[in-house]
Design brief:
The structure is a homodimer. Helices cover 77% and strands 0% of the residues of chain A. By secondary structure, chain A is an all-alpha fold. The first copy, chain A, folds into two domains: 5-60, Homeodomain-like (Arc Repressor Mutant, subunit A), CATH 1.10.10; 69-187. In chain A, helix 1 (5-25) crosses helix 2 (32-39). Chain A binds chain B through residues 25-29, 101, 104-105, 107-112, 117, 120-121, 124-125, 149, 152-153, 155-164, 166-168, 171, 176, 179-180, 182-184, 186-187, and chain B through 24-29, 101, 104-105, 107-112, 117, 120-121, 124-125, 149, 152-153, 155-164, 166-168, 171, 176, 179-180, 182-184, 186-187. Chain A binds a DNA duplex through residues 1-7, 10, 31-33, 41-49, 52-53.
Chain lengths: 188, 188
DNA sequence: GGGGAACTTGAGTGTACGCTCCAGATTCAC
DNA sequence: GTGAATCTGGAGCGTACACTCAAGTTCCCC
């Protein structure tokens, strides 16, 4: 859609505005007027670059899901340890509250919108694979099923921790994540 | 608002319709037209019984949060064990998918709406207290702060499990909850 | 530097929303 | 049974929304 340099820049500004509004007020908080005003752009420009409001939101969602996974360059043959993956997730939540809010709202949105649900599930599965691989690397005695189970548990707990930390400011996500790793390690 | 028998019945039908729509399509899915149609009621009747659409949604939210806690009759001096509390939560999620969906969306909604956020936080705090009391009963050597910390971790994990189980149908929440209890018990 | 494609703009469109209003029906305490 | 309070339905109101359109401007390949 965007072929000229200015178009690409405008597109970026629109996506940034959408991202901010989404984090601030959820899907409801994203209106065409707000997006275009925040981006300093006319309505027509928006529709020159995006098919619909939804497609801009979807683009932000896509970027957000990508952002949860650190360096996704090596898809299958990563060499990160479980500690690193957990740490990256914690950092993601605590350091990028804007994007993290969107990410955690996605789960809720996904419960409602099938298109988003599909994307969230796909991204989730990839992350489970990655966590499971790390588990096996850490504990080679683990069979594949057990590794996946452990990975699922760790990820689900982490998600819950992230959600809780946004609900309850007194929740110390980093400390709890450390506790989680200890418990999982102790159980292995 | 409702003084006559018919009024109370209508109110119930409206709340039921609101609950269904909320679970099905989130906040976005709840429109006045849909609610009144589903409840088989005129718009005027709705506004005779509720101040606004929001107040009906809020009522459902309130009921939902109450539903998460089994028998809240004995506020401070409960005698339930941690296993029971966890079991009740799992049952709640798996057996009442409609209400559970709303409950899990609440976290996301709460991130956006301060009134809902306040209610969710209050309900969350009460639940932490309850879980913490159970932890201390199970493990009297635990000091208060540690019990609360453990309770927070268990609850946050459970929330994450619930969310994951709605995202990913292959996630076995009951089994993972059992694993969670084992791990927490082993660490105690 | 000419020209066609890409970009920009904002007034305007149709639609769906939450909500008001009111005239008539129903309930129920007395 | 009466009457005041409550309940009911739905036409209609104002508003905000996502989106269109056409006329003008900017970009950038050649």
């Amino acid at each position: 859609m965007a072929r000229y340099r200015v178009g690409i820049e405008t597109r970026d500004r629109i996506l940034a505005a959408t991202r901010d509004l989404l984090a601030e007020g959820g899907l409801e908080g994203v209106t065409l007027k707000r997006v275009t005003t925040a981006a300093g752009v006319g309505v027509g420009s928006f529709y020159n670059l995006f098919d619909s409001k939804e497609s801009a939101v979807f683009e932000v969602v896509r970027e957000t899901l990508d952002a949860v996974d650190p360096h996704p360059e090596a898809p299958g043959a990563g060499d990160d340890r479980l500690t690193d993956l957990v740490g990256a997730f914690v950092t993601f939540i605590t350091d990028s509250p804007t994007v993290a809010r969107i990410y955690l709202q996605l789960a809720g949105l996904g419960l409602t919108d099938p298109a988003i649900a599909a994307r969230v599930l796909r991204s989730h599965r990839l992350r489970v694979d990655r966590f499971a691989a790390a588990c096996r690397r850490e504990d080679p005695a683990l069979d594949d099923a057990s590794a996946r189970e452990r990975a699922q548990a760790v990820l689900a707990s982490l998600t819950g921790y992230g959600l809780t930390s946004l609900i309850d400011p007194t929740f110390d996500m980093a400390a709890h994540a450390r506790g989680l790793l200890d418990r999982v390690g102790a159980a292995g």
